[in-house]
Design brief:
Spore Coat Polysaccharide Biosynthesis Protein SpsA, Chain A, alpha/beta
């Protein structure tokens, strides 16, 4: 079956309204999906499981970084896994973008592909959100030695050896910078990890805006970076 070497890792917290559709659409292309239910107060876990995802549960809310780390450990338990995709539960990511990113990493010259909403004009974010995210990117690039245009995009493709070395300790929104920092410092055979970026479309829906994710995630990222 196609893409049997890929696991989608989906942090899940109170997304019962949309998670079945997100999982159902993704499974039409990627059969292996693990949703890490991070202490949801609704039926998110049940609906994800009914839609065909494997579900791992945190008894309490630990944060997105912790959910990703749990998902990585789960995916590493599959010896057939070669690539992990980090994928949001709220419907903002596009499966076509994942396919393009996987085509890029399968060429074999990079170990990580980061999605970037700033490499084309498809993503319609507010000017304020763009400003806050670009400030966070500038800080991350300065402190990690990487050169990215969108360091806090939740859509990434990582090869198995990179996933095995990641150890996320930042449970909140700053986990994205920690991932970039760890990748920036990784060495394989004495060489830095090679990475690339691909343009992706982040779809800010009425649902995600109603949850406050359109701007406050960006503000939280910047605040946690400064606090850290």
């Amino acid at each position: 079956m196609q893409n049997e070497d890929v696991w989608l890792v989906v942090p899940l917290y109170d997304e019962a309204a949309v998670i079945a559709d997100v999982v159902g659409e993704a499974r039409s292309v990627f059969p292996k999906i693990v949703c890490v239910d991070d202490g949801s107060r609704d039926a998110s876990a049940v609906r994800a499981e009914q839609a065909g995802a494997a579900v791992v549960r945190h008894p309490v809310n630990l944060g997105q970084g912790a959910a990703l780390q749990t998902g990585f450990e789960y995916a590493l338990g599959d010896p057939a896994m070669r690539y992990v995709v980090t994928y949001d539960a709220d419907g903002q990511h596009q499966i076509h973008d994942v396919e393009v990113m996987l085509d890029r990493i399968r060429r074999g010259d990079v170990r990580v592909v980061f999605g970037s909403r700033f490499l084309d004009e498809r993503t319609k974010a507010s000017a304020l959100k763009k400003f806050v995210l670009r400030a966070a990117v500038a800080y991350t690039n300065l402190t990690t030695g990487t050169r990215l245009t969108d360091a806090h995009n939740g859509l990434r493709v990582l090869d198995r050896e990179v996933v095995a070395r990641l150890d996320i300790t930042q449970n909140g929104m700053a986990h994205a910078s920690e991932i970039v920092s760890q990748i920036g410092s990784m060495r394989f055979g004495g060489e830095r990890v090679r990475y690339a970026e691909e343009p992706v479309h982040i779809l800010y829906t009425d649902y995600s805006r109603a949850k406050g994710q359109s701007l406050w995630n960006a503000v939280n990222i910047l605040a946690e970076l400064i606090w850290r």
